[in-house]
Specification:
Elements (H helix, E strand, L loop, with lengths): L1 H24 L6 H26 L4 H30 L3 H4 L2 H26 L6 E2 L2 E2 L10 E3 L1 H4 L3 H7 L7 E4 H13 L2 H19 L6 E3 L9 H12 L2 E4 L3 H8 L4 E3 H7 L9 E9 L5 E5 L5 E5 L8 E12 L2 E8 L21 H9 L1
Parallel strand pairs: 3-4, 3-6, 4-5, 6-7, 10-12
Antiparallel strand pairs: 1-2, 8-9, 8-11, 9-10, 11-12
C-alpha cells in the first residue's frame, strides 16, 4: 500500500510539474528560464496541495465520499433550477430594468450556492430514509446502521469469544476475513510448534463460531494483495465496509485510531463487565500470598480481580471474610483494597496504611500499585 501510494504521488507530481512548466514555456511573456522556474514552482505547489487534501480526507470512507458526491450533484441541479426560475421571473417582469447588472449577478450566485448547499444537506440527512441501489452505496434507515465487527486472529485465539457470541449480542454482525483464515492455515504448515498450536486453536474457534446457531457469521473475501501487513489489511477492510475491529491485541488500538477506525478491545470489554464491589461490602476471599507490606495478603476473585487484604498475611491459604475499603481502577483492570475480619471478635484489621482514620488513601493505593 505504501509503495503504491508513493508511486501515485510521484506520478502526479511529475505530471503537475510537466504541465505547469509546459504551460509557462508556451506563454509569450517573460524569459524562458524564468518561465521554467515558475512552472516548476507551480507544479511543486500543486502536488503539495494535492497531498494536503489527501491527508485531510484519508479518514473518510468510500461510502461517505459517494454520498457527498451525489449530494453535490443534486445540489447543483437545485441551484441551476433556482437560477432558471429567477431568469424566468426577470423575463416577465421589470425587475431587470431597475436592478444593476452586478446586483443581478450577485443574486444569481447566491441562489446557486444556496441550492447547492441545500441539496447537499438534504441528501445527507435523508440518506437514512431512502432505499437506493447504487454501487458502493447503501441508503438504509438509521435503525439498521449498527456497524459490523471484523474479527482478527488474536480474538480467535481467545476462547471467550465463543461465550460472547453465545449471548446473541453479535448476531449477524460478525465478519471473519478470508485472508485471516489463509494466514492461519499457512502458519499451521510452516510455523514453529507454538505458532502451529495457536493457529490450530484459532481455526477450531472459527469452525465453532460458524456452527453456532443464530450467529450468522460471515466470511469476507476481499483481499489486498499489494499489502503484506495483516493489520493494515484489517484497517483497510474496516474502512472499506465501514466496520469496527474486535481485537485482543492492545498494540493495534493506537494504529487503527490514527487511520480513523474504531477498535473494540476484548480485555476492556471483559473489565467493563466485571461485577462491581461497593465500599463496606463483605466478601469471601482466599488469601493466596503475602503482600508488599507486613501482615498484608493478596487474593484473587474468580474473574481475576486482585484483592489486597489488610491483615490477610496471617491467613495464607485460608478463605476468610473481608470488608471492602475501596476499589481502584487501573489500566490493567481493578484492584480491591479491604480489611480482614477477625472471626472471633468480629472486628477488622486496620493497623496498616492508617492515616489517622484507619482507611486507605490514594497515596497508599498508588504506592502499592508501583510494586
Amino acid at each position: 500500500m505504501n509503495i503504491a501510494l508513493a508511486f501515485t504521488r510521484l506520478f502526479f507530481g511529475i505530471l503537475s510539474v510537466f504541465f505547469m512548466t509546459t504551460y509557462m514555456i508556451s506563454s509569450p511573456h517573460g524569459s524562458l528560464s524564468a518561465n521554467i522556474i515558475i512552472g516548476i514552482s507551480m507544479g511543486l505547489g500543486l502536488i503539495i496541495l494535492l497531498i494536503a487534501f489527501d491527508m485531510i480526507f484519508r479518514r473518510f470512507n468510500l461510502r461517505s465520499f459517494n454520498i457527498a458526491v451525489i449530494g453535490l450533484f443534486l445540489g447543483y441541479l437545485m441551484g441551476q433550477a433556482l437560477v432558471l426560475i429567477f431568469d424566468a421571473v426577470l423575463d416577465i417582469s421589470s425587475i431587470s430594468i431597475t436592478l444593476m447588472p452586478q446586483t443581478l449577478e450577485i443574486i444569481k450566485i447566491a441562489l446557486f450556492l444556496f441550492g447547492v448547499y441545500l441539496g447537499t444537506l438534504m441528501t445527507l440527512r435523508s440518506s437514512d430514509e431512502l432505499y437506493v441501489s447504487i454501487p458502493f452505496i447503501k441508503f438504509a434507515p438509521s435503525a439498521q446502521k449498527k456497524k459490523d465487527i471484523i474479527v482478527d486472529s488474536s480474538v480467535l485465539s481467545d476462547a471467550r469469544i465463543i461465550d460472547l457470541c453465545a449471548t446473541g449480542v453479535l448476531d449477524f454482525h460478525l465478519i471473519i476475513p478470508r485472508f485471516i483464515i489463509k494466514e492461519l492455515y499457512a502458519q499451521v504448515e510452516t510455523g514453529d510448534e507454538a505458532t502451529k498450536m495457536k493457529a490450530k486453536r484459532c481455526i477450531e474457534t472459527s469452525k465453532k463460531l460458524e456452527a453456532t446457531q443464530n450467529l450468522g457469521l460471515r466470511f469476507n473475501d476481499t483481499d489486498f494483495p499489494e499489502v503484506k501487513d495483516t493489520v493494515s489489511k484489517l484497517i483497510r477492510l474496516a474502512r472499506l465496509i465501514d466496520a469496527n475491529i474486535l481485537t485482543a491485541d492492545i498494540s493495534r488500538v493506537q494504529m487503527a485510531s490514527i487511520e480513523g477506525v474504531r477498535i473494540v478491545n476484548m480485555h476492556s470489554l471483559s473489565n467493563a463487565l466485571k461485577p462491581l464491589t461497593q465500599a463496606g461490602e463483605f466478601i469471601k476471599i482466599k488469601v493466596q500470598r503475602y503482600g508488599k507490606e507486613p501482615r498484608q495478603g493478596v487474593g484473587y476473585l474468580e474473574d481475576g480481580t486482585m484483592v489486597v487484604i489488610n491483615g490477610g498475611g496471617n491467613f495464607i491459604g485460608e478463605v476468610i471474610e473481608a470488608q471492602v475499603l475501596s476499589v481502584k481502577h487501573t489500566s490493567s483492570g481493578r484492584m480491591i483494597f479491604c480489611n480482614a475480619i477477625d472471626e472471633e471478635s468480629g472486628k477488622s484489621y486496620s493497623d496498616y496504611y492508617e492515616d489517622g482514620d484507619g482507611k486507605y488513601d490514594e497515596d497508599d493505593e498508588g504506592e502499592y500499585d508501583k510494586h
